[in-house]
Design goal:
8-stranded parallel sheet
Amino acid sequence: MNILKPKENLLKDLIELNNLVENAKNIDVIENKIVQNLENENIELNNIEFENIVFNNANIVNSILEKNTFNNVKFINCNFSNTSFEKCSFIRCEFNNCKITGCNFIDARLYNIIFNETNANYINFSMASMENILFTTTGLRNSYFQENRLKNVYFEKADLTQAHFSNTSLKNIDLSDSTIEGMAISIEDIKGAIINQFQCMDLLYLLGVKIK
């Protein structure tokens, strides 16, 4: 596993940004800032490049943050529930103890990203490009992975209960210490995945057999 974390030396001595929405109206690049204790709902911020940013205890829910670039960004104790990140690019980012339930990451590009102890239930990753990704102790219940290109994607103690995979190959992906009960997937997509002996029971439905 060789996932590049955010560069900590570029996240020191950051200047606090007090009003994200107002600042974003006049510029298309926001860099070297810390955004904390923010409360926003139903906002729209598009086509902005965020570089060397720390979002700490930021709550931006039911919002549209599309076609943005997040480069070298840490999200700590944030809540982005039901927010759209469609067609965004995430490069060397971390989500730590965040809530991103119901978020839309459709057609996004994720490269070197860590999701740690994060609630990502009902998230939609359809058509996203994902390379060097780690989901650790993260909830992905009822999540959607459709027509994804997965490269070096790791699940460690992730909850994939009733997650949906369609036209997304899990070949060589280790699911053995994650929960996959009720996962919706085809034989073609699960072929080559690594599971433990008990998880076989969760996938028997693919064979169309009944256990007597």
